[in-house]
Amino acid sequence: MTDQLRGDVVLRVNGEDRVVNLDNRSTLLDALREHLRLTGTKKGCDHGQCGACTVLVDGERANSCLLLAVAAEGREVTTVEGLADEDELHPLQRAFIAHDGFQCGYCTPGQLCSAIGMLAEVADGMPSWISADLTATPDLDDDEIRERMSGNLCRCGAYAGIVAAIREVADG
Question: Where would one find coiled-coil regions in this protein (predicted)?
Answer without folding.
Answer: none
